[in-house]
Amino acid sequence: MSRLLNMKITLVLAVAILLLASTAQAEAAQADGHLWTLRSELELENVGSTEMEEVRVRIPLLAEVTGQGEVVDEQFSLPVEDVVESEDGSREGLFLLPGLAPGENITLTFEYLIDPQLASSATGEGEELGKDEAEPVSDDISAAARRVVRNSEGRDVRFAALQEFTHNHISYDLESPWRNGDAEQALKQAEGVCEDYALLLVALANAADIPARTVYGYVRAPSSESWTRHTWVEYLTEDGQWMGADPAFSRTPGLADSIDYVAQWYEDRPVRVTHTGGRIAGSLTDTVGRIEPDNSE
User: Fold this and answer.
1) Domain 2-120+267-288 maps to which CATH number in 1.10.287, 2.60.40, 3.40.390, 3.40.1000?
2) Is residue 163 left, alpha or beta, with left meaning phi > 0 and alpha meaning psi from -120 to 50?
């Protein structure tokens, strides 16, 4: 019988420079400035009393191109069997593992090199995606969106009004029992964390016929060495470009110039592990770093 483990990602963030040696990487760093690195380590252990076999791991992979950069190199510790890409650019990889004896563990590594100078505005299919793939919104969300934008003309002006409303409406509270909920709960309870701000703003935007999507990744203030898991928003402007917006930090569209952003994906999917026999336990750790350009020549 197959068993399924859905693991929400547990993140331990640290700053580290990952030396992914290659001539192409070095040339990219020299030509385009600094590069971001991200290393994910997925540790799995058979905590059962029988052999664990037919282990299949499905894990979110970095989106190849986002509004915050492009993956210019990636290395996995195991060959990837299949990669499924969503319309929004999010990817999921399938990996097959050897059997694990009782008490045995294995660590899978996923290393990425990201060039922030190669960010994309993702034009084209965005209009259709934003409308057709948007989650249904409740009557309360629709009513709130209508109230906020009733005196606003133009998509960009309407989105700005919705972001200002979201920023002012929610009180940031790491201890809130309503944190990391959904858009309707964020509207009703008016408290939460960055994901609640982002989900509410996306729902309000879609209710106002503005294509918008959540972005999951990391942020860091330049004066800090600590990266923090974060969720923000992208919306499709009147000019047909995806523009970042961070309602938890700002009441106006655009990402903060004083903050570093590293995007991972647009869909917040869990790690999924199926197997026969045994019992699985696991954790996922991410480490973000920076490689400076070599200006010695």
Assistant:
1) 2.60.40
2) alpha
